[in-house]
Specification:
The structure is a homodimer.
Chain A: E1 3-9, E2 23-28, E3 31-37, H1 41-47, E4 55-59, H2 71-80, E5 87-91, H3 95-105, E6 114-118, E7 125-129, E8 133-139, E9 147-153, E10 159-160, H4 162-168, H5 175-179, E11 184-185, E12 191-192, H6 194-197, E13 198-199, E14 206-210, E15 228-232, H7 240-245, H8 251-261, E16 265-269, H9 279-286, E17 292-294, E18 300-302
Chain lengths: ~300, ~300
């Protein structure tokens, strides 16, 4: 099953050096989820060949402009190109009021159903779930209410071991129950254990998105053992004071957190405008977490 | 005196084909004015080498997203790069409420003074004036409250004819009053008419910005005899029904209006996403107004 993330924006605060404010697209089994939606996200989607109308769910971490100012434009463009499908937006208190006010003054009556779901930043909670994925929000520590999001792939049923099943001569009608964990009793009385008749699925993968936050231990329980951790790394560690003052994190801290929670991969992003060259940020992260990667716009990263 | 317009966005409604939603920069004697501010305008300013902090006044025609969704991001970025100078924004009722709501939830306290001035769409009114220019808003006919803006260059004093003044031997202390229209009485009693001692300045130029509007005669009094008319031309005339239904204009109508008001130049823009190739729109306008030009992003047009 496909489970990848496309970086649409990697810049913090202001667009610069061709980098855009934060947005990511998650593909889970060919269903698309948008996480944050900085100004210009709709243009980035076009640039990377993504049809906006394939997105059914948008998750907004917080109401700093660089994380959501592209949302009204994207919602409007979906309307203008004739979208009919529901759109669900998940975000902090205030987001619905802002959307409503824009559409009040533009006198826009959307041609598709828009549902705005309010997240809360006090505890972890499941905000969306379907057959492929469960999405949870969890509190981060930023200057204003801010949540991360975790995408947990659903555990899939094992695959039938076709060769073994054929060798034993098990009828096809029995296969669904075997997949669901029931042993097979052959006509001669032999019991075949379902584990011996199936191939175990890959363990479900987990992706955690942490932007923006100062380093605390409070959110680590929510990102334990993820397959990929996206963590903001706004500054080099030499700017730690500035990171703390602005409720952000350094590239070193992001890597330390990845180690601490046992993440398999680390993707850093949300780069300050002071870094035209990103290599020092990457080197700093890799000094602690050698598998760290830079979030680069237009790149797909498998989770 | 410089009086030029830079096109930052030429698309209607949605960004497409590398075209951006509406924004224009007017340079009057090296002072910069922004007219409309579609999503991504701050990136366009960077692209074309314009420092956002040189802009002191922003004029918003109406509250459809493609004309103002870049404003909050631009105001925020000016804040983040340490702007101290006042910023004045002129726009319809509701704009201030929208700005306030964004900054309420982002808990932003701007480090510079921001003044939002509410325009009204019932009559023409002067919204800004300094030594170089007078900016007036005037009502257009769109689905929601919408104004155009006219930039009237101020009449300048004539220049002294240095040769004549030297030949007569007029003392320098007399020159300011001559420039202001006072005749010179020589010690021998001869009266020298100020007109004979000065060189008339170029007549003041006028630029009118009309977007978005359906064609009516109601706004023509406000754009008479302008040196350059920017007029939306969202559709080809074969789409007249659609233009009327959406309160927009065709390329033919824009040209007819330019003829009717005696405009010296015509700039068309606000192109529908249905036109990848803009030549047919230009040809249609030129069939009526041969000097018509396409508004193309990144181009400066002298007024």
């Amino acid at each position: 099953m496909r489970f990848d993330v496309l970086i649409l924006g990697s810049s913090s605060a202001t667009p610069i050096y061709g980098r855009h404010p934060t947005a990511q697209l998650i593909n889970v089994n060919e269903q698309l989820y948008l996480v944050d939606c900085g100004e210009g996200t709709q243009v980035q989607l076009i640039k990377y060949g993504v049809k906006g109308n394939r997105i059914k769910h948008i998750f907004i971490s917080h109401l700093h402009g660089d994380h959501y100012l592209g949302l009204i434009g994207l919602i409007s463009s979906m309307h203008l190109v004739g979208r009919k499908d529901e759109l669900h937006v998940y975000g902090p208190p205030g987001l619905e009021e802002i959307i409503d006010l824009h559409f009040l003054y533009s006198q826009t009556e959307l041609r598709y159903p828009l549902y705005v779901h309010t997240t809360q930043d006090k505890t972890e909670s499941v905000v969306f779930e379907n057959e492929n994925v469960r999405v949870s929000s969890f509190p981060l520590s930023h200057r204003i209410a801010c949540t991360g999001f975790r995408f947990d792939e659903k555990r899939r049923l094992p695959a039938i071991d076709r060769d073994k099943v054929a060798a034993i001569g098990i009828p096809a009608t029995q296969l669904p129950s075997i997949k669901r964990g029931q042993d097979y009793s052959a006509p001669d009385g032999t019991i075949h254990r379902w584990q011996d008749l199936t191939i175990a699925p890959n363990p479900p993968r987990r992706y955690a998105y942490c932007s923006d936050t100062v380093r605390t231990s409070s959110y680590l329980p929510y990102i334990q053992q993820v397959d990929m951790l996206y963590h903001e790394a706004t500054f080099l560690h030499e700017m730690l004071d500035r990171a703390v003052a602005t409720y952000h994190t350094t590239a070193l801290q992001a890597a330390e957190i990845a180690v601490e929670v046992g993440a398999r991969k680390l993707l850093i992003g949300h780069y300050s405008a002071r870094y035209k060259d990103l290599k020092p940020l990457l080197q700093e992260s890799r000094s602690v977490f050698p598998a760290a990667l830079l979030a680069l716009e237009g790149n797909w990263y498998p989770i």
